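Example record

Each entry pairs one chain with its bound ligand, flavin mononucleotide.
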Amino acid sequence: MKNSTYLIILLALGLLFTTYKWVSAPETAAVNVENTTINDIMTRTSVRSYSGEAVKKVTVDTLLRAAMAAPTAGNKQPWRFVVVNNRQTLRTIGEEFGSMKMAAEAPVAVIMCGEPAATFPGEGVGYWIQDVSAATENLLLAAHAMGLGAVWCGIYPIQERVDKFRSLLSLPEDIIPMACVCVGYPDGESTPKDKWNPEYIHYNKWHSPTE
Ligand SMILES: Cc1cc2nc3c(=O)[nH]c(=O)nc-3n(C[C@H](O)[C@H](O)[C@H](O)COP(=O)(O)O)c2cc1C
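Structure tokens for the complex follow.
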């Protein structure tokens, strides 16, 4: 065989291999749990039961750094945080709100707040909720990645909860408490929920089930 024939066969094989890799790549990416970030996202779950182990200030600082690394509309950063490690205050939160019982046993809770006046005026003011939500998810993921367990407990938009937290933490009127994130070392294993549902996905336009 001529050298040029060998070269053509080699090129064809190379092309075949590249095409195979390219076609199979999205499948591989979808289930790639080798990647630590993807793995942490897929294995995070709400943790509502904690061991007695304390959470160090340096660890809380890392959680807050992760929260403040979140995307934020116009880089306005309207998020504000109140770290609660006072036992009595945590107990009060746990007793006041049925959905936040775990606060009574948590070593620490971070109250994720927003200052709407710090973001865009007018219609854009609602971005504060998205910004504080992005920060909250970052904090949850950081906690999980560091071996902690956490749960997002909703405050805003339930007015009664907003008022109670405002009074409990002496929040000024222009600061809105959005969520109470209880954090601690998990007391046992929790299984992440599988929420994958391809029916929620539409490509290019919304398709009705009959299409
Ligand atoms: C806006 C919001 C409010 C929530 N409020 C509470 C709450 O008050 N108490 C609670 O135990 N969990 C609360 N959760 C956690 C959800 O129950 C939890 O995320 C959901 O059941 C899915 O489970 P997973 O986080 O383990 O994936 C809240 C979550 C979100 C996003």
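Residues 3-30 form the longest helix (28 residues).
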